[in-house]
Amino acid sequence: MTIEDAPGPFAYVSGAAFYDMTNRDACAPVDPLLGMSTKMKEDSIPINFQRVNETTYVATIHADGMADADYYGKGVCKFELGSLGVTLSATGSDGETRFQPTLLKHEILGAGTVTTYFWKGGYPRDVMANYQDSGHRNPDEFKADLRHQLFKVVLTSREESP
C-alpha cells in the first residue's frame, strides 16, 4: 500500500481479509423459524501492516486463510477469499475520519494495482464524526472544484509462492 499526497500522517493503519463461506446452507445449522442458517456467510482475519516508510506499507494475506472444516457437525464448510479492506486514520482517535480503500477477490488474485482517491478536506475529521470514507476509484467522481484537493491510496497485490 502506498499513500500519495496525503494531508497528514496516518498513525492508525489496519485491515482485514474477508472470506466467504460458499456452502453455508449445507454445512451450518438452520434456524427452523427462518428456514435458513443464521451463521455469518463471511469471516475475517486481521491484516498486519508493516511500515516501510512514511507512505508505504506491506502486508501478507493468504487466499486460504480460513480453513475448510466441519465446524457445526453438518459437513465441511468451504471458504474462499472474498475481499480485503484497509482502514486509515490520523491517530485512531474517536471521531476521526476512517479512510477505507478495498480490493475485491479478482483484484487481489489478479496481481494488479488499484488506486482509490479521497478528499483531503476530510482529514483528520470530517463534518460527520467517525465518517467512513470509501473514496472513489475515478477522480472524476468528485465535484470538479474538489479534484485538486485529493490524495490517493494505491493498493498493489502480487502473488507469491509458498
In a nutshell, what does this entry contain?
By secondary structure, this protein is mainly beta. It contains two helices and 13 strands. Helices cover 6% and strands 36% of the residues.
Following the backbone from N to C, one meets helices and strands in this order, namely EEHEEEEEEEEHEEE
In the predicted model, the low-confidence regions spanning at least 5 consecutive residues are none
Structural class category:
mainly beta
The description of the largest β-sheet is:
4 strands, antiparallel
What do the pLDDT scores average to?
95
> Care to count the β-strands?
13
In spatial order, strands of the major sheet run 5-2-8-10
Count of separate DSSP helical elements: 2
Main features:
mainly beta; 4-stranded antiparallel sheet; 3-stranded antiparallel sheet
